[in-house]
Write a structure and sequence with these properties.
Bound molecules: SN-glycerol-3-phosphate, calcium ion
Protein name: Glycerophosphodiester phosphodiesterase
GO molecular function: phosphoric diester hydrolase activity
Mean pLDDT: 96
CATH topology: TIM Barrel
Structural class: alpha/beta
Largest sheet: 8 strands, parallel, barrel
InterPro entries: GP_PDE_dom, PLC-like_Pdiesterase_TIM-brl
GO biological process, one term: lipid metabolic process
Strand content: 15-25%
CATH architecture: Alpha-Beta Barrel
Pfam families: GDPD
Shape: globular
Low-confidence stretches: 5-10
Length: 269
């Protein structure tokens, strides 16, 4: 099994493989997680949503259409929303062929399958609760599953897990339910708003097109809910030039589809 031992970011800049190594393998599949591990990347990011029968699955879009063969398997069920299909139906879908024929047979993983694989690979996870407004209660269910899979013990909570969302209410809920879990808010709050976010988020994770050196410095001057400096991971950084720009700003990490490109840029400066 592939194993990600060393964190290959520089000491200063974490590298997070966005949806797994998603430029080289189909996003949010076990193959993408394994690919990241084989390349030596310990941090991966994923997106979690919920099926019609209440199972948590790893997929980015609220529809199955772009990344599976659902239109062929279930014609007539347009617009093929994740929430309108059971876990058993989704398990029949091919989530690899759209990317490359070599990945035919890859599946949409359940969160449980995904956590097992990330554990086996000794990886770390930035878990995004995607579209939480569609799935009332998903925060509690996600935390329950993480607990069942052994991901809420002290070592995991300290260094292997961040739960993030674009939805501030969702992140506030995660923080209220499990104050020990590290959280990230996806977005770029105004400087005036940042202290309010720092009450429930350890990270502000912003598009790289929206940040500046001053913004990063403002974040680092604030303290997060665990008494440490607020952090910033920035996305989606896929070129050497953008990597160097945000590294100069002093970001804590980059979320990238091309972790190998980012690693090389950080090493060569
Ligand atoms: O982790 C950052 C990034 O995943 C946010 O955007 O649309 O790729 O989920 P998206
Ligand atoms: Ca995401």
């Amino acid at each position: 099994a592939p194993t990600a031992h060393a964190d290959p970011g520089t000491d200063r800049t974490r590298i997070v493989a966005h949806r797994g190594a998603s430029a080289q393998a189909p996003e949010n599949t076990l193959a993408a997680v394994d690919r990241a591990a084989r390349l030596g990347f310990s941090w991966v990011e994923n997106d979690v949503q919920r099926t019609k029968d209440g199972k948590l699955v790893v997929i980015h879009d609220d529809s199955l259409a772009r990344t599976t063969d659902v239109e062929q398997v279930f014609p007539g069920r347009s617009p093929w929303k994740v929430k309108d299909f059971t876990a058993a139906e989704i398990a029949r879908l091919d989530a690899g062929s759209w990317f490359d024929a070599r990945y035919k047979g890859a599946r949409v993983p359940t969160l449980k399958q995904y956590m097992n694989r990330v554990s086996r690979n000794h990886q770390k996870l930035v878990l995004e609760i995607k579209n939480p407004a569609l799935y009332p209660g998903i925060e509690r269910e996600t935390l329950k599953l993480l607990g069942n899979e052994g991901w809420l013990g002290p070592a995991h909570v300290r260094g292997r897990l961040v739960v993030q969302s674009f939805d501030a209410n969702s992140i506030r809920t995660v923080h209220r339910l499990r104050p020990d879990v590290k959280t990230g808010f996806l977005g770029t709050p105004s400087v005036a708003q940042l202290p309010a976010y720092a009450r429930f988020a350890d990270q502000i994770n912003s598009s790289h097109t929206t940040i500046s050196r001053g913004y990063v410095a403002t974040i680092h001057a604030l303290e997060g809910p665990h008494g440490k400096p607020l952090e910033i991971l920035t996305w989606t950084v896929d070129t050497a030039a953008d990597t160097r720009r945000v590294a100069r700003f002093g970001v804590d990490g980059v979320i990238t589809n091309k972790p190998d490109v980012v690693r090389k840029a950080l090493r060569t400066g």
